[in-house]
Design goal:
The protein is an alpha/beta fold. It is built from 9 helices and 5 strands, in the order E-H-H-E-H-H-E-H-E-H-E-H-H-H. It has one domain: SGNH hydrolase (Rossmann fold, 3-Layer(aba) Sandwich), CATH 3.40.50.
Length: 233
C-alpha cells in the first residue's frame, strides 16, 4: 500500500506569512507558495532530509492577523486542507501595538477565542495534531523604547498558549526564552530587525526550535538533523 502523505499546515500572522503568494492566479508559481519565513526553512530542511516521509507543507499565514482573524478564516484556509498537523503562531498583533487601527486583544479574550478555535478544529478534524508556538518580542528596532509593555503582554499570551497546550494535548514550542538567550549573546538586531519581525537568522532560530519539538510527532530524529546545532535542554 502506498504511504499516505502527512499534511503540515502553518498558520498565523506576518511572521509565518513570509510574503507568500496568495492569489489564485499565482498558484502556478511553486517558488513562492511557502513565503520566506521559518515555515519555508522547516519545509526545506525536513523535505530534503526525509523525502521518504512524504511530508506536505502548506502555509496560510496572513500578515496583520490576530487570533480572531485566524478563527474567522478556518472555513477557507484550514478545514479544506485537512491537515494532519496544524502549527499556529499568533499573538503579537493582539498585543499593545495592534496594527491597522485594530484594538489590542485582552489576554482572557485571546485565550477564549483560541480555545474556541481549537475546540472546533478538534471537532471537525479529530485526528489533527496541534503545535502551538509561543509569541515573542525582542528589544530591537522600534520596540527598544517600549519593550517592557510589549514583553509583559507577550508573557501573558505565552502563558495562555501553554495552558491551551495542556488542555488540547498540543506540542508547545517555546520561543521567548530562545530569543532572550540569543539576544544576550548577540546584538538583538541580528535576530529581529524591529523587535517583532525576525531577520533571516531569527527565522532560522524559530525553525530549529520547531524541528526540535515537532520531530517526535513526525517520527523523525531531530538530533540527527540538528546535530551540528547548539543543544538545548
Amino acid at each position: 500500500m502506498e504511504k499516505k502523505e502527512t499534511v503540515i499546515l502553518f498558520t498565523g500572522d506576518s511572521i509565518t506569512d513570509g510574503n507568500r503568494y496568495k492569489k489564485k492566479e499565482q498558484e502556478w508559481d511553486l517558488n513562492h507558495q511557502m513565503g520566506h519565513s521559518y515555515a519555508y526553512i522547516v519545509n526545506g530542511l525536513l523535505g530534503a532530509c526525509y523525502p521518504q516521509a512524504q511530508l506536505r507543507f502548506r502555509n496560510r499565514g496572513i500578515s496583520g492577523n490576530r487570533i480572531i482573524d485566524l478563527y474567522g478564516r478556518c472555513e477557507t484556509d484550514l478545514y479544506p486542507l485537512k491537515p494532519d498537523i496544524l502549527s499556529i503562531l499568533v499573538g503579537v498583533n493582539d498585543g499593545p501595538g495592534a496594527s491597522n487601527g485594530m484594538k489590542a486583544t485582552p489576554v482572557k479574550k485571546y485565550q477564549a477565542l483560541y480555545q474556541m478555535m481549537l475546540s472546533e478544529v478538534k471537532d471537525r478534524l479529530p485526528n489533527c495534531r496541534l503545535i502551538l508556538m509561543e509569541p515573542f518580542v525582542c528589544s530591537a528596532g522600534r520596540l527598544k523604547e517600549e519593550y517592557e509593555p510589549w514583553r509583559k503582554a507577550m508573557e501573558s499570551y505565552g502563558q495562555a498558549v501553554r495552558a491551551l497546550c495542556g488542555e488540547f494535548d498540543a506540542t508547545f514550542v517555546p520561543l521567548q526564552q530562545v530569543f532572550d538567550e540569543k539576544c544576550r549573546e548577540t546584538d538583538p538586531e541580528y535576530w529581529s530587525w524591529d523587535g517583532v519581525h525576525p531577520t533571516e537568522n531569527g527565522h532560522g532560530l524559530i525553525a530549529m526550535e520547531w524541528i526540535r519539538k515537532a520531530a517526535p510527532m513526525l517520527g523523525l530524529s531531530a538530533e540527527n538533523l540538528l546535530g551540528l546545532m547548539p543543544k538545548r535542554i
